[in-house]
Input
Amino acid sequence: MLITHIFWTLLALNLLVLAHEGGHFLAARKASIKIYEFSIGFGPRLFGWRKNDIDYSIRALFLGGFVRMAGVEETIEGGKEDEQIADDDPSNFKNKSLWARIAVLFAGPFNNYVVAFLLFVVAYTFFGIPYDIVDERAKVGYVIAKSPAYQSGLAVGDEIVAIDGQPIENWDAMTAIIRRNPEKKLTLTINRNNQNLDIDIIPRQVYGQTEPLGEIGVQREISLKRLGVIESIKTAGRQVWFLNVATVRVLIGKEKADFLGPVGLVSEVGQATQKGAGWFLQIIAAVSGSLAFFNLIPIPLPLLDGGWIMILIIERILRREFSQQQKAIAQMIGLAAVLVLFVVVTWGDISGLLQRYF
Output
């Protein structure tokens, strides 16, 4: 089961990377910029082919990709001696207009927004949007990664039948007890595969509430309702916009969310595949929209697309170009920051797994 979840996660991520890098690639071709390589993955080259003087490659680390083009310094992957063209060559990225260069950089995140929108449309049209409660029992339909429920081992399909020995008749009764007991250990009796077992859990404090309220990070079973094409298009547009608003609220501290690394994402995708194609498409759409947003964060560190765009704008304001060495240093700082974030969220994922299974 875990191998299957990892497979679907890697497949989905690499399709999103393909869409992202494909945006850069097509925009660069449209702007007549010289392209050396289109790669899925980083690190050692596994295999590839060459067509129209462009190297298409698959690399060992399946967690990203890049388009190497003339005039864009790539500290991470670097270039080859025979890939250097003259500074005044019209196919050099540096010789294109500011708007053309910004368009090439923006095209990657834009493609991810388009993919998110289309996946939501397909999901809502052919499978449905979350609509109604399946039944009134305290039956788990979804477990939020890194939550107390996840760490305690609760799983989709578990029915909570008692808390501290007190019988639970429905979802609302279960929620009422949990909300009254933040940061206090509770013993949940759950029915799993027609067998009862006890699980200890400590509800966490609900973020942003003035009075103490507890939550464990589960959602009830929800059915899906299919929408018409026009309504699906409207709803998908609103959902993509909501992803941006929700992310901004998290970043400015208005709401709290646990950022997921690769391990946490496997868990999310795994639950979605268990619940069906509609849920799977909606999870991948949300990931695609989030990927687009984070790539456009305007921090002037040239690793993500938003950083490169800010560098170009600052250069235009200062009326001078940063040296290749300065860009390389900034790029390495950006890489270090991303790696630190990656380690932190991945360690959080692993800590959650350890608490869940050990």
User: Anything to note?
Assistant: Confidence is low (pLDDT under 50) at residues 353-358.
